[in-house]
Specification:
23 helices; Growth Hormone, Chain: A; mainly alpha; 486 residues
Length: 486
Amino acid sequence: MSTTFKNMGLSSSKPPRGLKWRSNTYFIVFTVGMGAFTDLFLYGLIVPVLPFMLKERVNLPDSQIQSTVSNLLAVYAAASVAASPVAGILADKFSNSRQLPFVLGLVMLLFATVLLAVGQSVAMLALARFLQGASGGVVWTIGLAIIIETVGQENLGKTMGTIFSFISVAGLFSPLLGGLLYASVGYKGVFGLGIALVGIDFILRLLMVEKKTAARYDEAPLLRAETDGTTEDTEQTPLLPNTSTAHERYRLTKPKNRIMRALPILLLLRDPGLLTAIWISFMQAFLLGSFDATVPLVASEQFGFNSLKAGLLFLPLGGADFLFGPVFGWCVDRYGTKLFSVIGFVALIPTLVLLRLSTDASVTDKLDDARHIALYAGVLAANGVGLAVINSPSIVEAGNIVEKYWQANKDVFEQAPYAQLYGISSMVFSGGLTIGPLVAGYLRETIGYGNMNAVLAGICGLTAIVSAIFMGRKEEDLNDQADVDH
């Protein structure tokens, strides 16, 4: 691998070819977005094929297929949860250039795809899903750290809104495409597409040059002046005036505990604003997992849809997220995290409650099939708008808080702990994707679909209240709190 980097000129004092465009902000953002897209696309591409693989290749009896599929999905989530904080630690160790661990994450994904393509046993498929989940944890953790160092905190909202919109396409179309490819050309088509995507992603990651790496060459002044007037602060640029008041509020006592010295990010978990941002990240994934677990079942029971038609119902849900994600990301950058985290979760309360209409006989008996389907799709689209609103506040708020602690405690942190932060965030997000389907499935079976969504709406209401209290707090409020604490 080191030879590859040498051949590309990244270990030489002479600037590599194409340094300007390879370190361009838009190219870096596209590369990270493509990495996240590939990870989610391959995850979704395999999901509809897994039951057939278990039956035809592994020769499992029908009675064991459902539980085995669930276990394989759980292995993916567990691997992502475990790998995310480890990736954060390693990324900070490679803080001079995070390209190497970023590429190694893709190598894991390639091995996972090959194992899925040739695996003949449950153990082999489980190993493949583990590698796939671990790769996802690496991509998200290191990718987010690269993003914030590239675009700066003030542009993070619109950037992440755009990336979430981009990868929503992967979540929408990959299961449909996987099912179609399997039905038309079999396993070769499914895994051929997967390996081709990994190849494209691999080339992009090798070509990408981080800003901090590009700054070591003579062309660095030109690079810092580019990107059409977009401010590109990095982790070295303070977001707040270097005032004694601001620093005092965020000062930390140097830890004596060995674990805290090695992982000073843990000291920040006492900050209620950061904890709220992490909770919002969990809720975002929790809601997504809930939709994944329940929409296909409602489609089958209420409309008699097969798997392909059920997948089409995710189009209004994800399509709204795709269209409005960048818009609300820009709004978060412009107007702050508190306003839009509150708006997003408040908006989700009625849209979640309205989902009960699709299973309410007093409503559905008055509608023909077309209007019944249109009603459900319309309410799903409204929920998609709410999900688009809550895409960016968590990441922006968490990054902003960590930036302030970093600027005030450079004796505690060896470098800005963005990778460790996003390792925790990725771990929590993966946990939400795991717990969401389990809780939603249990509630749906015990209290019904309408009441299940009422419970989720109530949780969104509580999250809106917590967001209003702790998100985007002003310095004067924090200082008042500090005075009370003392």
